Amino acid sequence: MTPVLTVGIPTCHDFNGLWPTLIDLHKTQLADDLSSRIEIIVIDNAPEGKHGKPNRDLVSQIPNARYVPFTDKQGTAPAKQEVFRQATGYAVVCLDSHVMLMPGVLARLVNYWESETSDDLFQGPCLHYSMQDSHGRSRIVGTHFSERWGDDGMFGRWGVFEPAKDPEFPPFRIVMNGMGLFSAKRTSWLGFHPEIRGFGGEEGYVQEKYRQAGRQTWCLPWLRWVHRFGYVDGVPYTGLDWRQRAKNYLLGYRELGYPDLSGIRSAYTKPGRLTEVEFDDLMKELGVVPRLRGQLPSSLESRTPSQKKATVNLLLTELQPGEEELLEALPCTLRGRKSGAVLCNIGCPSMQSQLVTTFDCRKHGLVTLGKRRKDLINCLNCEQRIDDLPDASSRSKLITKSHQSPVDRRQNEVELIIGVLSATHHRDKREAIRDTWAPIGDDVESVFIQGDANIMSLSNTGTLRVPCKDTYDTLIHKVQHFCRWATRFRSFKWLFKCDDDTYVSIPRLKEFVRTLQADYVGRNYGGFASGGAGYLLSRKSALVIADAPDLDVGVPEDVGVAELLKNAGILLLDSKQFEGDQRGPWPSHSNNLITGHYLTPARMREIHNAFCVSPVQR
């Protein structure tokens, strides 16, 4: 019978850590009658060392445990990857050989995976050794990692989301966490970078890989574990030298554009680590090139030689202030258009070459090089530009584009403004929304909210750049800046906030708010409205958020908004027309749902096309 769960334990010269972990698991599976529903695999990355035989002998005494010597690759990530290769269970939980689970957690995790079908990544809070404070409350080392570098050269610092001290608090999304314990469905595991060796480069990499695949990382507050920190005889891992660790992070950056290259350089060129020259040589050896801020193309290995060359040419060209917003507006061959051209109107004084080939996507990389760089930038600023028109007759028409930022001018009153939380590298998601449900009309306005701006600005493509980092940790700041912009520069009745993987039926949403008498409306998930399903804010609620001091980074955006409004006496009105479950359902002719969440661009288009089959309301 196929086990529900594989418990995988990678180990390296650590019998003293493996023994308590393995014995505790065996004791637990006997007490909770789990032996027939789980399997245990120990991956020994140093089977020939002095700990190898004791490890093997220990594992042999547990009936459903299997010992696997693994010497092909040395390192924590390769050993964890081998867990998934050897596993036969429906799902896998991987834990270090010095991690212990809290009572009842193993049985609950088995039960969880018997009904869970998600392709997401799941983690949980790491507890302090004392486990409780003097008042009997959970004492937690961390529920998540924040995106900060430590003095030890490790990316990610522990953070605690206070409500998660209650193990029954609902699951919430996190940007990253320590990899001492994580769980995923075996067949959909995305894996570590195959070239990582030694120690480091895991945290952040896997979670970002899931994010870029349209998935999420969740903290399950009940999935509690204790991790041994420190070794009496020293750390048993090999590959701890600074060069290898820097290499691991650079490999992740080469593939995902994450974490930021400047952060890697700063962490690994400190005194006693690598010199600037050594770091540059390592980048050259790995084929790592600086990227435009926020750009996350596919790995260079997947591109053709011509695509690699074109990408490098642009990426080594420093962007000037304001150019990134202009690049955002460039056409792309993946956007359903017939060409990738930016064509100036005949007679445009700023453009000498008349035609600039552009590809601006994760598949092709960024290629925006004309005959002269200044010609391209001048053309992008030209108010008489014809973009990507399919035939010569169309090109003869004059299309005027205004590049004035509308952030500082008020428009006439609109019924509804939709704010879509996005990130610079989510261009494919924004295009799917523009191609499907993005509203067109005078009564509804929509903006995509992105970070990494020095000042707030609104581009003519509907991108609201706000002054905060473009990270998951700062989603709550993006919402607050959205409210500040809307209450200052717009006259509206309702704000609707959603994510860039959310489908919204605009006609249904407009009908919903037509007679609505409330200030805060959404799908209730344990006292807060799901941010992914989307929630409505009246002008009163938007002002509460806008006028508040800067909200705490690291608090899940939807939870933080709910707490702020509750303190102001504004309570949530629950509506099941907003759907946030990753398993659906989604808006269709057979239901009255307004939104659906966790949608890939392709799935969003499928839903939209199904709506358009008949004249029934979308």
UniProtKB/TrEMBL annotation:
<feature type="domain" description="Fringe-like glycosyltransferase">
    <location>
        <begin position="422"/>
        <end position="526"/>
    </location>
</feature>
<dbReference type="InterPro" id="IPR001173">
    <property type="entry name" value="Glyco_trans_2-like"/>
</dbReference>
<dbReference type="InterPro" id="IPR002659">
    <property type="entry name" value="Glyco_trans_31"/>
</dbReference>
<keyword id="KW-0735">Signal-anchor</keyword>
<feature type="domain" description="Glycosyltransferase 2-like">
    <location>
        <begin position="7"/>
        <end position="125"/>
    </location>
</feature>
<keyword id="KW-1133">Transmembrane helix</keyword>
<keyword id="KW-0812">Transmembrane</keyword>
<keyword id="KW-0328">Glycosyltransferase</keyword>
<dbReference type="Pfam" id="PF02434">
    <property type="entry name" value="Fringe"/>
</dbReference>
<dbReference type="InterPro" id="IPR029044">
    <property type="entry name" value="Nucleotide-diphossugar_trans"/>
</dbReference>
<protein>
    <submittedName>
        <fullName>Glycosyl transferase family 2</fullName>
    </submittedName>
</protein>
<keyword id="KW-0333">Golgi apparatus</keyword>
<dbReference type="InterPro" id="IPR003378">
    <property type="entry name" value="Fringe-like_glycosylTrfase"/>
</dbReference>
<keyword id="KW-0808">Transferase</keyword>
<dbReference type="GO" id="GO:0016758">
    <property type="term" value="F:hexosyltransferase activity"/>
</dbReference>
<dbReference type="Pfam" id="PF00535">
    <property type="entry name" value="Glycos_transf_2"/>
</dbReference>
<dbReference type="GO" id="GO:0016020">
    <property type="term" value="C:membrane"/>
</dbReference>
<keyword id="KW-0472">Membrane</keyword>
